[in-house]
Model the fold of this input.
Amino acid sequence: MSYSIAEAARRSGLSIDTLRYYERMKLLEPPARDAAGRRAYSDEDLEWLGFLTKLRTTGMPIKMMREYAQLRWQGDAAAPRRMAILVEQRRSVRERIAELQSCLDVLDYKIDKYETVCRFVTGATREEISA
Done:
């Protein structure tokens, strides 16, 4: 299947400008062109964009994404380095999750305290307070 840049943007959840930026940054191989010279994205391109989006969501810097993309084009010989990049990013994500969990624990503690105070002050139930 082949998709225009607008359709690829819609399907990937990225903007047209982001698709062009990813191409300029060499995160994405230049897509094929149709008979009129317009970009024609494939299903494989969209899968790769989905993976790039996940990497970006994890906080991976563009520089590291770029290295990963270049290694991808080198094939299986670059698999050890690609895996090392992903292992390091996973470690970073786990650290961030632990940090966020700690923040959530503090928020839960404070909310519980305020609910107790609100019930005492107003006599309202937890559901009434939260509404």
